[in-house]
């Protein structure tokens, strides 16, 4: 049976030669940012990876194919409003119906692993939602980190989520969270959530060494690398928390749930912050892409 996986020539060559590669997600394009900043950001992120010596592999579903390494035209196609948001549970339906969609962190991890890519950069991951005790809303991203050996570089977890419960969930699932030059979990727009992490790492080489140790033990789960937003782009925690609370109240009033929750909140936060959150988001994704590329370079040369 043919696997509906389509790897670009550039990525295929890099895979064959065991060269450094960084996977990138695409729900950030289809549902995380408005047009045209979404496409601009996706291009900047790829450039940042390539400038740091790794091959960029943006992953999405295009006409029912699981694509690893999007062309510029395919990237534009994802910015179209008809693109779906595809997490693990949506993949079979998307392939069967030949849909086009952005892949979440969960689906991107899965497809990266199918293709043989070990390192992945994004902005923020999904997690345990606030009010979890009533809704049971836990992102499939956490479950994927529990079962797929891909390292995810992110800027922490946005305070739209329940950060302490998200950390507890990761601990239960055996996912190590490494703080890059930071003692506490970063909070996406802000550098510090105040929640302590167990592991602080100082260099990309130290992170690569941990991934190689992970492989040598035969662990099958993911690793989360938390890279704080650059100080120049960080936004005040209190202001952002206020905005986020407003957005969550609006979401509850409009009875928005399930897969629509995260895109709604991201869009409202961009509007409520008059674009400040979008600029911060773009800066932190590029910063994560750079670190992921450095890790990939180190991993490829020491593996
Ligand atoms: N966080 C962001 N921007 C995003 C997302 C999360 O700051 O675009 C996207 C990611 O693709 C993530 C998904 O995997 O939202 C999580 O959605 P859900 O909570 O429905 O699992
Ligand atoms: Mn959810």
Describe it.
With 303 residues, the chain is α/β, with parallel strands linked by helices. It contains 13 helices and eleven strands. The chain has one domain: Indigoidine synthase fold. The protein has helices at 9-16, 27-32, 37-51, 72-78, 91-96, 105-115, 132-135, 140-147, 163-172, 204-217, 237-253, 261-272, 276-302, and strands at residues 5-7, 21-24, 55-62, 65-68, 84-86, 101-103, 119-121, 151-154, 176-180, 199-201, 223-226. The protein starts with a strand and ends with a helix. The mean pLDDT is 96. The structure holds pseudouridine-5'-monophosphate (PSU) and manganese (II) ion (MN). Residues 137, 139, 258, 261 line the site of manganese (II) ion (MN).
Summarize the structure.
By secondary structure, the protein is an alpha/beta fold. The chain has helices at residues 9-16, 27-32, 37-51, 72-78, 91-96, 105-115, 132-135, 140-147, 163-172, 204-217, 237-253, 261-272, 276-302, and strands spanning 5-7, 21-24, 55-62, 65-68, 84-86, 101-103, 119-121, 151-154, 176-180, 199-201, 223-226. 51% of the residues are buried.
Structure keywords:
single chain; 303 residues; alpha/beta; Indigoidine synthase fold; eleven-stranded mixed β-sheet; 13 helices; 11 strands; globular; binds pseudouridine-5'-monophosphate; binds manganese (II) ion
Topology:
Layout: E1 5-7, H1 9-16, E2 21-24, H2 27-32, H3 37-51, E3 55-62, E4 65-68, H4 72-78, E5 84-86, H5 91-96, E6 101-103, H6 105-115, E7 119-121, H7 132-135, H8 140-147, E8 151-154, H9 163-172, E9 176-180, E10 199-201, H10 204-217, E11 223-226, H11 237-253, H12 261-272, H13 276-302
Parallel strand pairs: 1-4, 2-3, 2-7, 5-6, 7-8, 8-11, 9-10, 9-11
Antiparallel strand pairs: 3-4, 3-6
Residues 25, 27-28, 32, 87, 104-105, 123-126, 139-141, 158, 259, 262, 266 line the site of pseudouridine-5'-monophosphate.
